[in-house]
From TrEMBL:
Protein name: Hemocyanin F chain
Any one of the GO CC terms: extracellular space
Signal peptide: 1-20
PROSITE patterns for the chain: HEMOCYANIN_1, HEMOCYANIN_2, TYROSINASE_2
Gene3D superfamilies per record: Di-copper center containing domain from catechol oxidase (1.10.1280.10), Hemocyanin, C-terminal domain (2.60.40.1520)
Pfam families, A to Z: Hemocyanin_C, Hemocyanin_M
């Protein structure tokens, strides 16, 4: 293991050392200005897990004192109204897929070149977390809450929401401390300046590389550069200007250690651990702030246009004639169902370097949904030579907090991916049926199967993907209305060169959120396309204006279709 990797392992797990102590102790040539004295967060590299053996989320459980550990919302009732979303934040596979995403896409690797080769890694960092935020907002709207509001990240700003995780690590019995309410940010002036620098460079549409070159942000690589420096990874184009730590990692470090006083850093909060950070409501507020940076960048990008640009929206000669969904248990189309399922699971307590015959028993309520089938009718004219189409499926809440219809400009940020797949098109009509369980968003394992054969830290990509039980948002008892959107594009253009989809993978990972191991990302269009930019302008009496809503959008693009879907929770 290389010297840098050993040093970084020390940086992470010397939890009683301060940041300055760690930099002095490693002596590995990492030159940083003196930073605030606090622990670093965990976002560094995969090898530390192989060597030290950090427990995965199934080995973290509430301090309930009960023989069967409950995951049913009762343990965290003292966390106030935010406990309403316990089923999302405490879902074992939600937390597992988070750590495995970061292990699949580490910020540093121990290889001769010292570089990362994961394709479009910075863009994936943005897109993965954008989807998490959109899903969480959908849960909040379903229960009558406001969408996530970004934290203020400046000296003296308050993190108002406290959080008590009420749990410990199964192997070490380490108990995560609570974070009191109304904790202030202190000693973060350096990072406030960094924030201002990044925003200024986005506004100027130029980044500055370490060799002094100006790097334009207006092409498709811009979002990738931003993701690498905002997180930040070793691919950061200028660690002196944009920080070795990165805005994202620094924020996790500040929040995860902000309850330590007087320089005593023996306590580490859940925001410092990839297995636990998604449990904390502040995770979503912090990532909304990070996502605001990407949103600012995208607001400068030329809108995707029907006929011009690198990827025009129109596919002439191809149209989506109809779309609908039908649940297996429903007689009505476009009515979907979610529910809680009670189950008990026994899990072995083990780590990579510690083995035990003990088990933990969980008694949990878990959100599930009735599987459903997409029915999509596509028509291809004889003038179209391409035989393959990419089918892109998105969903978003139709109404905001006060029951008003979202404008398309606002709704683009609320759309989350549901699926993306390639089909063969015949001349004339092609009817596509696809089961929700086949989604390329999903981690293709049920929790029960995961327990029988969990992914290892040596193959983290096998744990990378959205939990299949959470494919649908909860909805509510009255029935929450969502917009379901489908777009078809030319797969012969979309697919990168030399992509080998015939190669037999060792496991099925989410291609949408995780990519494909050792290959190009399977879609050359921007992630989130067509909702990665603001809507295009249309000419109307009185002057051009932005497309107003989803209905107007699909009326101008025959290769798209939208319908309303109701999700009812019982």
């Amino acid at each position: 293991m290389g010297l840098i990797i050993k040093a970084l392992i020390f940086l992470i797990f010397c939890t009683t050392c301060t940041f300055s102590d760690k930099i002095d102790s490693t002596k590995d040539g990492l030159q940083q200005e003196e930073a605030t004295r606090r622990p670093l967060p965990w976002w560094l590299m995969m090898d530390r897990y192989k060597t030290i053996g950090i427990p995965n989320p199934t080995q973290l459980f509430p301090n309930s004192g009960k023989a069967c550990i409950p995951i049913d919302g009762t343990v965290g009732e003292d966390n106030g109204q935010e406990n309403a979303f316990w089923y999302f934040r405490e879902d074992l596979l939600v937390n597992a897929q988070h750590i495995f995403w970061h292990l699949t896409h580490p910020i540093m690797l121990d290889n001769p070149n010292g570089t990362l080769t994961n394709d479009r890694r910075g863009e994936l960092f943005y897109y993965f977390h954008r989807n998490v935020l959109a899903r969480y907002d959908a849960e909040r709207l379903a229960k009558g809450f406001n969408r996530v509001v970004a934290l203020r990240y400046e000296e003296g700003a308050i993190v108002g929401q406290g959080y008590d995780p009420h749990f410990q690590e199964g192997t070490t019995e380490f108990t995560y401390p609570p974070r009191p309410s109304n904790m202030p940010f202190i000693n973060i002036t350096r990072f406030t300046r960094l924030w201002q620098t990044v925003y200024a460079d986005i506004n100027n549409r130029m980044l500055i590389a370490r060799d002094g070159r100006f790097v334009a942000l207006d092409d498709l690589k811009g979002i990738d550069y931003l993701g690498e420096l905002i997180e930040a990874s070793i691919n950061n184009i200028n660690e002196d200007r944009y920080s070795f730590e990165g805005i994202h990692n620094a924020g996790h470090g500040h929040i995860g250690s902000m309850f330590n006083e007087g320089g005593n850093f023996t306590a580490r909060g859940v925001m410092l651990n990839p297995s636990t950070s998604m449990r904390d409501p502040v995770f979503y507020q912090w990532h909304k702030l990070v996502d605001d940076i990407f949103y600012r960048h995208h607001s400068y990008m030329a809108p995707n246009h029907p006929t011009v640009g690198q990827f025009p929206l129109l596919w002439q000669g191809v149209s989506v004639e109809s779309i609908s969904v039908r649940a297996a248990s429903s007689e009505s189309p476009n009515l979907l169902q979610t529910f809680f399922k009670n189950l008990t699971i026994s899990i072995p307590i083990k780590q990579d370097i510690f083995m035990s015959n003990e088990t933990i028993e969980y008694c949990m309520k878990r959100l599930e949904y009735d599987e459903f089938t997409y029915n999509i009718t596509i028509e291809k004219q004889p003038s179209v030579n391409s035989e393959k189409a990419t089918v892109r499926v998105f969903m978003a809440p139709r109404f905001n907090e006060v029951g008003q219809r979202f404008s398309l400009d606002e709704q683009t940020r609320q759309f989350f991916a549901m699926d993306s797949f390639v089909v063969h098109l015949n001349y004339g009509k092609t009817v596509v049926t696809r089961n929700s369980s086949s989604s390329n968003l999903n981690l293709n394992w049920k929790l029960e199967n995961w327990m029988d054969s969990p992914p290892s830290y040596e193959q983290p990509e096998c744990g990378c993907g959205w939990p299949s039980n959470l494919l649908l948002p909860t909805g509510n008892a009255q029935g929450m209305v969502f917009d379901l959107f489908v777009m078809v594009t030319n797969a012969e253009i979309d697919t990168p060169e030399n992509l080998n989809l015939m190669q037999e993978p060792q496991c099925k990972m989410s291609t949408i959120l995780c990519g494909i191991k050792d290959q190009k990302y399977p879609d050359i269009r921007p992630m989130g396309y067509p909702f990665d930019t603001k809507p295009f302008q249309v000419s109307v009496p009185g002057g051009p204006r932005m497309v107003a809503n989803l209905e107007e959008y699909v009326s101008l693009l025959p290769n798209t279709k939208a319908t309303q879907v109701t999700i009812r929770h019982s």
